[in-house]
Amino acid sequence: MARPKRHEETISTIKEIARQQMAVDGAAALSLGAIARAMGLTTPALYRYFANRDALVTELILDAYRDLSEETATAVDGIDASAHRRRFRTLLDTYRRWALKHPQDYVLIHGAVLPGYEAPVEQVALAAFGGLQLLISVLQDADDAGLLRTPPAYRDTPPRIREALELLEGGFEGAAPPPHLLTLAFTTWLHLHGLVWQEIAGHLPPFLFDDGGLFELEISALTERLGLN
Q1: Of 218, 162, 160, nearest to 190 (Cα)?
Q2: What is the pTM of this model?
Q3: Does 147 score more than 90 pLDDT?
Q4: Contact at 8 Å (CB) between 60 and 117?
């Protein structure tokens, strides 16, 4: 086996065992030593692949964001650009399905408790922006078609919020969307995340979420409010 291929396969194995550990014991229990033991290696041997636990955690976070972005983009890209309602709902449905399929990854990218871990803010923010940018694009297309109903309050974005949103503008190729559209996309994402987080975290009675009915109800209401029926 060629050395580069073996190196990549070992990295994949390390990541998979790390995910298994987190699923069983929680993210805070993640340990290079435990991973090494599961692989029949010494802990120093793992340092050839990851400098420390934090480097592994960061890579897991980036992988999760990339996978989520790719899955939602693939689902939306297969739909005609003029089918705004279907594209919007497909994006949100795919986001939820990915989260339910990868709950530990979802928790990891949204603030799992990892004592002492400090994420490289710029690197992680760039990875997270991929999914948000897709939502912005879907809303932008609907807005350009004259179908999107934006809350009037968003068209007079308070200065402090506008300044914060300006940080997103550098991530676009070409002209950035107007502030009201960025605000709408961000609050829509927060709404979506809140629904999915509650379902995964189990903070509310499970019968509210078991069949996806509450999520479907809220997404239908949100779609109606945005004028995408």
Answers
A1: 218
A2: 0.88
A3: yes
A4: no
